[in-house]
Amino acid sequence: MAIGALIIGDEILSGKRQDRHLPHVVATLAARGLGLDYAHYVGDDRGRLTALLRDSFARGDLVFSFGGIGATPDDHTRQAAAAALGVALERHPEAVAELEARFGADAYPNRVLMAEFPAGSRIIPNPFNRVAAFAIRDHQFFPGFPQMAWPMLDWVLATWYPDLRRVPAEERAIVVYGAGESQLLPLMDENVAKFPMLKLFSLPSFMPDGGRRIELGVKGDPAYVDAGLAHLRAGVEAAGFRWEPWVPPA
User: Rounded to whole angstroms, how far apart are CA atoms 14 and 11?
Assistant: First the structure.
């Protein structure tokens, strides 16, 4: 299944707050040999969020969503998830119990609204303040606060997806000098056809003196990356361009 991330909130798009979730999700998944296939930043727009979720539910994606699950008028995530699935919101008894255990009588009449999830949801325990989040159809909906969301993400992966791991991808690259991407395009096409199990990347840039350089390499199955890079290196040499090994930044 494809893996996606949703970062929700007008405050992110306006710059009032800086997103910290995306780099954390990337690092968390990388530790399991996984990576994101896509990520979306979405404002507090119920219609747009509903449309995105309808598509990801239909594809059967695994989605990690952050933000918008409160009970204030600018929170739309739970309603959008329900609308995308065509189900009603229901008060989840386990989520209610968590709120009552934390707040007692003060859970009513307003805090209990945070226990309303799309019908068929299961709860994600919140170790920070016992206000549960929810999951449904491989979509996990976390609060926007990192101190709550990140432990909940760890719990979801350890509890519901313990076997979701892959052999970590490896990356090999060279730096090519004096070439434009168009001059290496036939070589790149040949590499992609020859090594379909790898992902080729080409990152051009200009040097301070105006010269051109391209970071050219492959990423993927460790069993094939050396052969994939050797093919690129031989092609660059045959074309007469200077190259040197790429050294990852410290």
Answer: 5
Residue type, 187: L
Q: Which amino acid is at 93?
A: P
β-bridge partners, 117:
90
20-43 tens-digit pLDDT: 999 999 999 999 989 999 999 999
pTM of the model: 0.84
The answer to whether the CB of 140 falls within 8 A of the CB of 153 is: yes
What one-letter code names the amino acid at 203?
L
Range(s) for CATH 3.30.70.260 in the chain?
A: 170-245
Tell me which residue of 151, 218, 206 sits closest to 179, measured CA to CA: 206
Q: What is the CATH number of domain 3-160?
A: 3.40.980.10
Return the beta strands (E) in 92-208 as ranges: 116-118, 122-124, 133-136, 139-142, 170-177, 198-206
